[in-house]
């Protein structure tokens, strides 16, 4: 059972800096994932402009028939989003947790260059632990 | 500390007891500072060995000062003069002040008489650091190795100290071993002392 299909992290200019696939449904090649990431970036920006509410920060949840897309944007403009099974509740907490891992294991790593693709062993290690924990249902409940 | 609680007035500044210092600092603040240290040094060098050396030199200065301070604070202005004494001083007292815990293990090298190893499952400076594949066996623990060298050197135990990753069975992450190789004169002196 895979509740989460995939995870994306995009930098403030819309470039995909991290992509991870979980489960078999909807596997994408690199080009598709890059395209989807920048597409989401633009849609997110447009939604901020179109929204009738003042001070709107963009789409947080997109519900479709076959998947839900949860998005979390940090104050610096880095966006984290997961594509998951429809109707899953606690994704915000998981996204915040992933953001925390990003600040710890990516931003405090002297060998990481800002806005560049993330290749940090410790980040991936802790991320897969968080996802595994989430499947058992410990995070954010 | 100044401004905390009721401070006794001393007429002579030298009569004042030495402050215990603040025992803890923010790990995040340290991690960012250390990260900057590594990044700065990276811009100053063109190979990894050079970077390792510069980090070690940065640590050396810390080690020299730490020895001075701890001898005064904890040992009543005395320092260890024997090999095992200074090693356990590094392993417990120094480690505790710098990292808030005693080092995981202190061992004698099996192959050489003059080698000792301090091992740490997760070295504090390496907590958030992933070494890129193209940097090979580089270890930011070189900074800690420098601290150890600084302490030993100024205590009169010249040694070469280096940091290595050692893979552990059943563990995803390798541990860091600080390898200490003492100079010949240290061992001859130690033998003479009996």
Helical/strand content category of chain A: alpha+beta
Mean of the pLDDT scores of chain A?
A: 88
Count of β-strands of chain A: 5
Using the 3D structure, state the CATH architecture of chain B: 2-Layer Sandwich
How large is the share of residues in beta strands of chain B? 5-15%
Helix proportion of residues of chain A, in percent? 25-40%
Structural class of chain B: alpha+beta
Greatest contact between two chains: A-B, 12 and 19 residues
| General form of chain A | globular
Quaternary state reads: heterodimer
Radius of gyration of chain B: 18 Å
Mean pLDDT of chain B: 89
Percent in helix of chain B: 40-55%
Q: Kindly report how far apart the N and C termini of chain B lie.
A: 44 Å
Q: How many structural domains can be distinguished in the coordinates of chain A?
A: 1
Low-confidence stretches of chain A are: none
- Largest sheet descriptor of chain B: 4 strands, antiparallel
Unreliable sequence segments of chain B: none
Question: What does the model show?
Answer:
Chain B: It is found in: Endoplasmic reticulum; Golgi apparatus, cis-Golgi network. Chain B: Pfam families: TRAPP. Chain B: This is Trafficking protein particle complex subunit. Chain B: Keywords: Endoplasmic reticulum, ER-Golgi transport, Golgi apparatus, Transport. Chain B: InterPro entries: NO_sig/Golgi_transp_ligand-bd, TRAPP-I_su5, TRAPP_component. Chain A: InterPro entries: Longin-like_dom_sf (IPR011012), TRAPPC (IPR007233). Chain A is 38% helix and 20% strand. Chain A is α+β, with helices and mostly antiparallel strands and 141 residues long. Chain A has a single domain, classed as Beta-Lactamase (2-Layer Sandwich), CATH 3.30.450. Chain A has a 5-stranded antiparallel sheet with strand order 2-1-5-4-3. In chain A, a hairpin with a 5-residue loop joins strand 1 (4-10) and strand 2. In chain A, helix 2 (91-106) packs antiparallel against helix 3 (121-136). The mean pLDDT of chain A is 88. By secondary structure, chain B is α+β, with helices and mostly antiparallel strands. Chain B has a single domain (26-193), classed as Muramoyl-pentapeptide Carboxypeptidase, domain 2, CATH 3.30.1380. Chain B is 44% helix and 13% strand. Chain B is built from 5 helices and 4 strands, in the order H-H-H-E-E-H-E-E-H. Chain B has helices at residues 27-44, 48-75, 83-99, 142-154, 184-193, and strands spanning 105-108, 115-120, 159-166, 175-182. A 4-stranded antiparallel sheet of chain B has the order 1-2-4-3. In chain B, a hairpin with an 8-residue loop joins strand 3 (159-166) and strand 4. In chain B, helix 1 crosses helix 2 and helix 2 (48-75) packs across helix 4 (142-154). The mean pLDDT of chain B is 89. The A-B interface holds A 104-105, 108-111, 119-123, 125 and B 28, 31-32, 34-39, 42, 128-132, 135, 140, 172-173.
